[in-house]
Each structure stands twice: as structure tokens, then as C-alpha cells.
Design a protein that fits this description.
mainly alpha, 2 helices, 95% helix
Length: 118
């Protein structure tokens, strides 16, 4: 029983730290994507504005296709940023729970060792 508590404490601590690291990575990745989104949206609007200037020419179709592609990329970037943000919250909460379980296991291990010495 003593060894089992020790192993559980170490394993949950390592898993908690790994989950915290992944949560931090997801959060910073979401922030990066969130900063890219307005630039892609702005590019889309500028391309649409340029296409209005060249109405009725083949250039208009090319510009509109690029504008739609940029708009899709902006939408996908925003969706990905939201997903990464949610993932960061979930893994952050999970890492806190795992670290708390690790602390509880360590306390139980120490109390168990104290009772064995008595």
C-alpha cells in the first residue's frame, strides 16, 4: 500500500505537469491565432474593395476568389483559436485536479509512513 500511494502521487504529479504544459501551449497558440484573425479579415475586405474597382473584368473574379479564400482562412483561424482556448481551459482545470490528487496522495503516503513508524 505504501508503494502504491507513492507511485500514484508521482504519476499524478507528472500527468498534472504535462497537462499544465499542454494547457499553456494551447493558450499561447490560441492567442497567436486570435491575433492573426483581424489581419486575414482586413485582407478579405481590401480584396473585395479592389474587385469593386475593376467590375466586369477577369481581374474581378480573381480578386473575389482571393477575397473568399481569405475570408474562409479567417473563419477557420477564428474557429481554431476558440477550440484551442477551450482546450486550454479544460486541460488547465484537469492539471489542477491532478496536482491536487497528487498532493492528497503524498499526504496519505506520509501519514501512512508515520503510522508504520509508531
Amino acid at each position: 500500500m505504501k508503494q502504491r500511494l507513492k507511485v500514484i502521487a508521482i504519476a499524478t504529479l507528472l500527468c498534472g505537469l504535462a497537462a499544465a504544459g499542454f494547457a499553456a501551449w494551447s493558450y499561447f497558440h490560441a492567442r497567436t491565432q486570435d491575433e492573426l484573425w483581424p489581419d486575414l479579415q482586413k485582407k478579405s475586405f481590401e480584396l473585395e474593395r479592389q474587385s469593386d474597382k475593376v467590375k466586369g473584368t477577369p481581374e474581378e473574379n480573381r480578386l473575389m476568389n482571393e477575397a473568399h479564400a481569405s475570408e474562409r482562412a479567417a473563419s477557420q483561424t477564428l474557429d481554431s483559436a476558440k477550440s484551442n482556448s477551450q482546450r486550454a481551459v479544460i486541460f488547465g482545470i484537469g492539471s489542477i485536479l491532478l496536482i491536487l490528487i497528487s498532493i492528497a496522495s503524498m499526504i496519505a503516503h506520509v501519514k501512512n509512513a508515520e503510522t508504520d513508524l509508531s
